[in-house]
Amino acid sequence: MPKLILTLNTQLPQDSINMIATNLTSLTQTLLNKQPEVTRIHVNQNQSPCFVNASLVTESPAFDLAIYITKGTNTDAQKSEWLSATYHFLSNVLGENTPTQPNYISIIELDAASWGYNGLSQFTRNNPV
Q: For residues 121 and 115, is the Cβ–Cβ distance under 8 A?
């Protein structure tokens, strides 16, 4: 049950956004064993201004990606592989100048009792009475 939030400092065509959503869902399913039918992705575009070293980033794409997952459901190796594959995918989509900026990907692990969807925590979903 992951939730991903991608923030971009640029605007992309809708077909690119659709492709990003499809591929992030696939990477998350393949590398983190998450179910696509409960994977939610939000893409926030044109989120400016973006500064690096107190200078406005205007000439190259920059991104931040956060994924929320249930704590303890993935190994460090799985998370490392997902971080690398996701970074390379987004860098390829956004173009060759992307690596000139620091681009951040965060894995936020939440306790199963502290989050869920449709009114049930992950703990409750995984431990029915």
A: yes
